[in-house]
Structures are given as structure tokens and as C-alpha cells.
Amino acid sequence: MQSPNMASALGHFKPWGQAPGRTTRGVARRWRDGCRGAERPVKKPQMMTATPIACLPALPLPDLAATERLGRALAALLRRGDVVALFGDLGAGKTSLARALIRALPGPEGSAEEEVPSPTFTLVQVYERAPAPVWHFDLYRIEDPEEIHELGLSEALAEGIALIEWPERLGDLLPTAALCVTLGFVESGSEAGNDSREALLEGGGDWPQRLAELRF
């Protein structure tokens, strides 16, 4: 649910950068030549409708603080075996949301302030948290969906919580019971340079009931 003061959150801010920091646990694999390279057209997978689908109205994210608040609110709903798929363009706030979510989960001493860098080059990082370890994937550099198995997807689904940026790369491998969070920019006709976002949440499985408990 949207909090009454959501519309009055802090407002204007600059694009959110990636925080540097140590790798909690990187999965060794080859680097692809060059940097990220040219954009490849991607299409959000269509979720099967065999299970109920929850879809909330767009949640406004006028600033970084709002995105982080959403991450903390989602963290309170997570269980072992969950998949959270983070859709959105470059700079939409996927890593910022993921960082806040991971820090909000109970963990070892100091975990609330732990560095949570983007796994752009390591492709996956694992964090010891409760109720289960969090596997934070960034699949931007993946070309074949089958490559995800090299990164430990099966283990993540069986024993942990999978937090996946660029889940488009999974194709049909994205579980139908995943929670899909789509972050997008909001065009504003008022102040030039306004880069507010909004979030759309939809999920299968038991997410219709769980999202009813969202406190945002």
C-alpha cells in the first residue's frame, strides 16, 4: 500500500550511481570481451496465467529514498525459494532497490551497512541473510539463458532467495511464480531534469496474498 506522504517524498535527485565495494562471494567465470557493448533488444517474458497474478497500481518513486523504502518493504515479505525479477532500463534504480532490500534482511553483525556492489562483472554475489541466503544476479552480459546454470541458479532456487537484474535474459527459465518488479522513468512536464521513477509489481503463486501485506 502506498503511504499517505508518498507524494511528498524528497523529489529531485541525480541519477543513482553504483556503489564500489568488495565482492561478498563472486562466482568465477570468463569475462566477455569489451565492456557491456551495444544494447540487445530484449522482451519481458509473458507470465503464464495458470496461477493467480497480482498486479498493483504503479507506485511512485520520486527519489532514491523512495526506491530504498520499497526495497525494505519487499524484504519483509520474502521467503526461502523466492525469485524477485527486477526489470528496467539502465539507471532505473534496480541495483539501488536490490541494495536496500539486501541490507534490510537480518544477517551477520554489520550487515545493515555492508557494501552491496552491483554484480555487473562478477555476475552473481551471495549474501548470508535470513530467512535464506540472497543470490544477487546481474544477467546483462549473459547471451544464452542456459549460462545462468553455471552461476548457481538451481542452488539459489532450492536454498535461497534469487534477486535477478536483467531477468529478460532468462527467457522461459524465469519461474512463473516470480515477483516481477518493473522500474521505469516518469516523464514530467514541470521541472526539467526531473528523473522520478515508478514501480509496477506483479507476481504469480501466492504473491497476490503477500502483496496485500505490502507496507510502503
Structural class: alpha/beta
Shape: globular
CATH topology of the domain at 58-150 and 183-216: Rossmann fold
Low-pLDDT segments, ≥5 res: 1-51
How much of the residues is beta strand, in percent?
15-25%
CA radius of gyration is 17 Å
Number-wise, the strands total 8
CATH architecture heading of the domain at 58-150 and 183-216: 3-Layer(aba) Sandwich
Descriptive terms for the model:
alpha/beta; globular; 216 residues; Rossmann fold; disordered N terminus; eight-stranded mixed sheet
Question: What's the gist of this structure?
Answer:
The chain is of the alpha/beta class and 216 residues long.
What can you tell me about this protein's structure?
The chain is of the alpha/beta class. It has a domain at 58-150 and 183-216: P-loop containing nucleotide triphosphate hydrolases (Rossmann fold, 3-Layer(aba) Sandwich). It contains 4 helices and 8 strands; from the N terminus they run ββαβαββαβββα. It has helices spanning 64-75, 94-104, 153-159, 207-211, and strands spanning 54-55, 59-61, 83-87, 124-127, 134-138, 161-165, 179-185, 197-203. Strands 1, 2, 3, 4, 5, 6, 7 and 8 form an 8-stranded mixed sheet that branches. Strand 4 (124-127) and strand 5 (134-138) form a beta hairpin. It is globular, with a radius of gyration of 17 Å.
Please outline the helices and strands.
Elements: E1 54-55, E2 59-61, H1 64-75, E3 83-87, H2 94-104, E4 124-127, E5 134-138, H3 153-159, E6 161-165, E7 179-185, E8 197-203, H4 207-211
Parallel strand pairs: 3-6, 3-7, 5-6
Antiparallel strand pairs: 1-8, 2-8, 4-5, 7-8
Helix pairs in contact: 1-2
